[in-house]
Amino acid sequence: MGHVYSQYLGDPAVTPDHTKGPTFDPLYGYPGGRKERVMIATLEEMESAQLPLNKRDYCAHLAIDHRACRQRVWPLTYKCAHEKHTYLNCEYADYVLRLKEHERERRLLERAKRKAERAARAAH
Amino acid sequence: MAARRLLTSRTLIGLPGGLPGLLPGLYPGLLGLQVSRNVGHWNKDWKPKPYPVTPEERAEAARKYGLRPDEYEPYADDGMGYGDYPNLPVVSAESRDPYEDWDYPEHRRNFGEPVHVDFDMYGLDRINASQKMRFSMQQYALSFFGVMAVSIGIYYYLEDKKMHWPVLPKQYPGDGAVHYTFEPAE
């Protein structure tokens, strides 16, 4: 709620736009670099499994495993609990990463605002 | 006519209310007590006669409808009239005295009283065209359009201001896009 308030009523300048990606350089502030995300499932595998387009993210390989397990054991779908939980934990980690990206964007925007204010004060 | 229509309605038969109209073929019909199967029953004899031209026709028409000749005035015979049916002043049922001992309380009408040609529109459950309204038409219009304008204005103002979680969009591996985690590169 606080982010919605600050975006529309508070200070839109320091609130990230939730419809767009990060506006700052992803490696800014990481002198040692950041680990890249690896896509494990290949396009051929995803197409062969007929995975919906909105599930072809960085957890797609676990989605395919879960769907294959369900197809094997259906209707006894409780047997796929392990695959289901691995997939959902991956999705959760992905969501946490999105939260972190949003927070990083917000802190960099506030920092940019502070730097602009300091520059404006120094100019006088 | 509408008057005769009411006289033969279910209210005079004395059977449980609505029975002839709602349950066709029950015992009232079998016993021959039923005059009409629903309140909207029409009889060709009730059709108004053509527009009266001579004074004798006017007097006869006035007597037929229960009016004096000096207060009987049919609708103009311009192709949109109703033959010799009288042009009565509009008095809605709702604006009549609710405490008077009417013969037909649900219509607030007495026996033999002439019925307006749009009688079904001016009933208790429909339009009240004859009572002074509490506010002026300008006030009514202002209230209605004011509320509608405010609602529509709020809708369009908030159209691009949506609730959302504090997350950036989902990262999909696309052509050439590089995404990072928050762990240091080895």
TrEMBL record, chain B:
Keyword Repeat: no
Keywords: Membrane, Transmembrane, Transmembrane helix
Pfam families (alphabetical): NDUF_B8
Lineage top rank: taxon: Eukaryota
GO cellular component: mitochondrion
InterPro entries: NDUFB8
KW Repeat (keyword) present: no
Membrane-spanning parts: 140-158
Protein name: NADH dehydrogenase [ubiquinone] 1 beta subcomplex subunit 8, mitochondrial
